[in-house]
Design a protein that fits this description.
The chain is 25% helix and 30% strand. The chain has 217 residues and is of the alpha+beta class.
Length: 217
């Protein structure tokens, strides 16, 4: 996971035939592959994290996953602070996916996921906070298809945040996923990054305006 102190106009996304290792499954061989997207966001890392975790915001910005629902909140190991809209470690949830990226309720695919990690990463600066969030795919038996999504939220020296998300697919069904929806996933990951960036930047600007108004400036 690398920082990007530049300001790309759009997210960069691609499909990697040499898959990136993940926390649960490590390095994967065979038909494994990774979909990855990276963008620079003009907002604090805490704002980006809040946008990612608060699923009540998803209908406002997320046309790839316009809706999230939760299984029983009593999931074993779930953080006590979990609510019906907030993603938290140990919580199982359902992404209602629109592979067309239009955010329409019809034709949605349901993906079952488990959030396995929310970590603050070590930083050399007291003024910067970095985060890592990990989601584990639970929709298929592990012997058939394994998927794990890693979100890195990295503070830059200029006040922006690099958002770097990748998902590695492995197992016998990974080949079919790559052949049938690989290019679509690349487009949707790129769209996810760009829409998250736009929303987080607007949230940051709105809070700045509100704070200025409270100070009478």
């Amino acid at each position: 996971m690398q920082r990007n102190d530049g300001h790309p106009d759009a997210a960069k996304a691609g499909l990697l035939r040499s898959p990136l290792p993940t926390p649960r499954w490590g390095g994967q061989g065979g038909p494994a592959f990774t979909v990855r997207a990276v963008t620079s966001i003009k907002a604090a890392s805490s704002t980006v994290l809040r946008t990612l975790l608060d699923t009540s915001m998803y209908p406002d910005w997320n046309r790839f996953v316009p809706r999230v629902t939760f299984s029983d909140v009593s999931d074993a190991g779930a953080d006590a602070t979990h609510s019906k809209t907030q993603l938290a470690r140990g919580v199982t949830f359902i992404e209602h996916v629109d592979m067309s990226g239009n955010g329409k309720p019809s034709g949605l695919v349901k993906m079952k996921l488990l959030m396995t990690a929310l970590e603050k990463l070590e930083s050399n600066s007291m003024e910067k906070t970095d985060y890592k969030v990990v989601w584990l795919g639970k929709g298929y038996p592990d012997w058939a298809l394994r998927s794990e999504r890693v979100h890195a939220i990295l503070s830059n020296t200029d006040g922006t945040t690099t958002y770097d998300v990748f998902e590695t697919f492995s197992g016998p069904l990974a080949l079919l996923v790559r052949l049938f929806v690989g290019p679509t996933l690349v487009r949707r990951f790129k769209q996810w990054n760009e829409e998250l960036a736009q929303y987080a930047e607007k949230e940051s600007q709105d809070r700045h305006v509100s704070a200025s108004s409270d100070l009478g400036t």
